């Protein structure tokens, strides 16, 4: 235990202002717990264990078991309890280990968190934040690797955010907690160790960010696929194609204005989405562009998504199932013609 | 027996109720009974639509339990919640207007019969997912506990919910964290059309709740005085800080599960046997027997209830419809 | 008939539990009704005497239909309401009658069948249909074609149906699919509309799709590029002939060159001696890596660009009966494609490029043109266009102006010819330069001056840098 807690000191190895995605999340939690006594953290192994992905490491020691609460393996009960606590005036931050486990709480998320405000005619609000890990890339096979953000983005009443950068990991919790609505925050497992600069710039919950400018093709992506899209843009640049990379950041609401403005400049769209293609968020983005920027399109929109298969275990199969840089480059080239 | 807190619409109960608290129970049950019977008529005439579940026969639980709560306590209910809402003091006109789909309804026409809400009375709604309300009740109690509010959240659900995972998760969590929740199972012996013995390996539901380490016992749910007394006892236990309690209210619905239910799964003799235990008739007979009620006061009570019902019908009928332009309001919280 | 659920529209009375004269009370079960779900008891909501049953057992009536009349206790009988029309027994639809009201408005044939019929000159509206709901099937069309009936006789537009309008007794069904709708991206379609180019004049790129870069630049109906055909078929299954796209391209060229015909044009020729320039070019090339070597075409292009700076009257557009001189020298370059056809990308500010820069620009633009990867910037409006036959063998080319430009410069092949230098005769490499000018904007003397300017630049080595 002491070894675990000694590792809890965040950011000591990195220069000030520079930290890992994991540390950025932890810092945002610490800030919230310090700044608002209504905030508490709840979930499986968030306390004594230190968090399945070590995001909450050290928080129990700092804030005590009232505010950093280990729960039983009862996703429905503790997510529902988060909803109830939010109704009761608290600001709970619930952690679900992975998005796959969130399905055990889907009833609470969809039937209660997303509906209570409307169903009560506006009498209720659910200021709840649910954090969960998403995405493949660690050979965890078909029950720990899926990207279901797009599913959740289907649901009115929820706000869905996916921090893709360290700065967003640091900056998104505060506005999420300030929101009177339930916010689902998706942390891609492949990003936890990534490093980056953080600053105090407030992060809007509903605005996309242009991560790289370009005029030949727009690559729209989010979360764990941002590094892939940026690498693809780099490769395309070498071939004389200037790709613009748009990081959605919020999947609901969708900042379609930023996407449309970019496509109206580049006339070409590639959506890079780790979710499955059928009925995906990529489909939603492509549909909106087709609806609203049809006459600006100089090529059919392209989607680069995960293969329609439960994520397999073997490394080469898993790699083949996920969108790769080459896939994005090829799709972008097809749009340029 | 202690006096139930009257949270009904009328803030000043008639003088005779102050003299005999049983009169409040009787009046509360008659209100619910006659209101729901009127609802059947309104449903048949297509004034009310959607699913409508009636609690006729189960009124004792509504008035005995909900009536025993303090105004600061919270209530989480199910889709069979007309009685709970009325007993909690949600105005009858607002309940009926909701079922008419009017903006004047207690959920602005967005909930209907199954989703009655009144946050000002800490009535956190009818939940139409069996078992779905239990985790919320746990969370409300958690919030109250964390904020130091010495109040109780009463969570009502049916025997069907006991088979749901959320029941077990929620009882475990509430007991683990010693949260002030009163779990109240309205055991009317049928999960829709499936009888208790076809649904549960252990049909003694209180026994199952007791396995989570909380006080749990069965109650005659056809007797409002027994319900009220058991509730007071459970509330006292919870308020002492020892954690949740579980009450199994053994009751029966006289009508079908919902309006469009041919009721084929039980025989009429069984229904008739339970009707002999009609909570309204029982309490009324008891009061008449010991001189607490005479024919004139009964007639007065019924007439007053009917007057309230007809006023509610007229008000609901006259209630405005929410403008369609407001369709997507309240999906997200609005700035107040 | 009470409504017992939102999905219940009607019910059948299967039993009456009461009879006329019976006293009933609120809550009594008075009848049983069969719905799609089950048999459900019907209760009454009044006290009174059953006066009359309106719906007999076995009859299905809609929700809301009165089932019986209940009179208040002691009341006199009320007049009987008019009998309600029963829903059953309803006349079953006779077999073979039109099923739905909307059937008449249904399309009579699917789009492929419709196109098939059109190719055979048949009108599906007049064909008997044997498909579902009387729709016309592929087989119906073929059958009609073989009998020669219902031919489309009202065809006045013979541009695309001349060879199929008259059905032959034994129809010759074309083996290939009907002429496909051209695949034009929405953006390209929009650009074409904005620039006044009709969609049928658009020609696709290498992948068969018309994209923005394939839309002729310029204003109004004034293409600055000639169309190019589909390149060598990459799919061997594509029939080599007929090639509808190529035919359409020829038609577009015809249309454009016909428009060009409206321009009163003059021609000036001059044979340019290239001995010294090519010698110097060889010297320069010796110092360059193979990949950067400069070809004679670049030299001629470079000289033309610089000449346009010296003689600006030929670089511009004829708009509203006025010459609008161009502010920069944007040179259109006619690029012939390996598969046949032409593209005319633009080299902007060509006069500001050094010779080697221009060579690089030319190499880029030709490569992009030939691989179908032209950029939007390649489609900038040119003020003057150059066509160079290069090694194809023609000694001179007298091209036509691309409106609204006012001149076109042509170069033939570089050929060795007898050449008089003073009083001596020698053999020198030469090229025939031609100039086609718009006589509304300039006169032949300007054209001649322009060709002289090219010659001067070619021999002025200072111009090369």
From TrEMBL, chain A:
| Keyword terms | Oxidoreductase, Pyruvate, Thiamine pyrophosphate
At the top level of its lineage, which domain of life is listed? Bacteria
GO molecular function terms attached to this record: magnesium ion binding; oxidoreductase activity
**Known SUPFAM superfamilies for this protein?**
Thiamin diphosphate-binding fold (THDP-binding) (SSF52518), TK C-terminal domain-like (SSF52922)
Coiled coil start-end = none
Residue stretches making up the Transketolase-like pyrimidine-binding domain: 19-194
Per the entry, which co-factors are needed?
thiamine diphosphate
- One Pfam family this chain carries? Transketolase_C
> What InterPro entries does UniProt report for this protein, alphabetically?
THDP-binding, Transketo_C/PFOR_II, Transketolase-like_Pyr-bd, Transketolase_C
Question: Which SMART domains does this one have?
Answer: Transket_pyr
- Record-linked Gene3D superfamilies: 3.40.50.920, 3.40.50.970
Asked if the record carries the keyword Disulfide bond, the reply is no
What's the protein here called? Pyruvate dehydrogenase E1 component beta subunit
Source organism per entry reads: Actinomycetospora cinnamomea
UniProtKB/TrEMBL annotation, chain B:
Query: What are the Dehydrogenase E1 component domain coordinates in residue numbering?
Result: 28-322
Which residue ranges does the record annotate as region Disordered?
1-21
What is the official name of this protein in its record?
A: Pyruvate dehydrogenase E1 component subunit alpha
The answer, when asked if Oxidoreductase is one of the entry's keywords, is yes
Native species: Actinomycetospora cinnamomea
Q: A single GO BP annotation from the record?
A: pyruvate decarboxylation to acetyl-CoA
Residues spanning the membrane: none
**What gene name is listed for this protein?**
pdhA
In this chain, composition skew of type Low complexity spans 1-10
SUPFAM superfamilies under this entry? Answer: Thiamin diphosphate-binding fold (THDP-binding) (SSF52518)
Q: Which cofactor does it need?
A: thiamine diphosphate
GO MF annotation terms: magnesium ion binding; pyruvate dehydrogenase (acetyl-transferring) activity
* Segment forming the signal sequence: none
Give its E.C. classification number. 1.2.4.1
Cited InterPro entries: DH_E1 (IPR001017), PDH_E1_Alpha_Subunit (IPR050642), Pyrv_DH_E1_asu_subgrp-y (IPR017597), THDP-binding (IPR029061)
Oligomer and partners: Heterodimer of an alpha and a beta chain.
Q: Which NCBIfam families match?
A: PDH_E1_alph_y (TIGR03182)
Keywords tagged on the record? Oxidoreductase, Pyruvate, Thiamine pyrophosphate
Described by its record, this protein's role is as follows: The pyruvate dehydrogenase complex catalyzes the overall conversion of pyruvate to acetyl-CoA and CO(2).
Q: What reaction does this enzyme carry out catalytically? A: N(6)-[(R)-lipoyl]-L-lysyl-[protein] + pyruvate + H(+) = N(6)-[(R)-S(8)-acetyldihydrolipoyl]-L-lysyl-[protein] + CO2
Pfam families found in the cross-reference section: E1_dh
From TrEMBL, chain C:
Give an example GO cellular component term for this record: cytoplasm
UniProt feature, compositional bias: Pro residues: 78-92, 168-177, 226-243
Q: Which CDD domains match?
A: lipoyl_domain
Which SUPFAM superfamilies has this protein been placed in?
CoA-dependent acyltransferases (SSF52777), Peripheral subunit-binding domain of 2-oxo acid dehydrogenase complex (SSF47005), Single hybrid motif (SSF51230)
Keyword Acyltransferase assigned: yes
Q: Where is the Lipoyl-binding domain?
A: 1-71
Enzyme Commission (EC) number: 2.3.1.-
Which residue ranges does the record assign to the Peripheral subunit-binding (PSBD) domain?
108-145
Q: Spans of biased composition, class Low complexity? A: 142-167, 216-225
The protein's required cofactor(s) are namely: (R)-lipoate
InterPro entries, per the entry: 2-oxoA_DH_lipoyl-BS, 2-oxoacid_DH_actylTfrase, 2-oxoacid_DH_E2_comp, Biotin_lipoyl, CAT-like_dom_sf, E3-bd_dom_sf, PSBD, Single_hybrid_motif
The UniProt keywords, alphabetically, are: Acyltransferase, Lipoyl, Pyruvate, Transferase
* One GO MF term attached to the UniProt entry: lipoic acid binding
Query: Where is the segment annotated Disordered?
Result: 74-108, 126-251
UniProt cross-references to Gene3D superfamilies, sorted A to Z: 2.40.50.100, Chloramphenicol acetyltransferase-like domain, E3-binding domain
Name the protein family: Belongs to the 2-oxoacid dehydrogenase family.
- The identity of this protein, by name, is Dihydrolipoamide acetyltransferase component of pyruvate dehydrogenase complex
Please tell me the species this chain comes from: Actinomycetospora cinnamomea
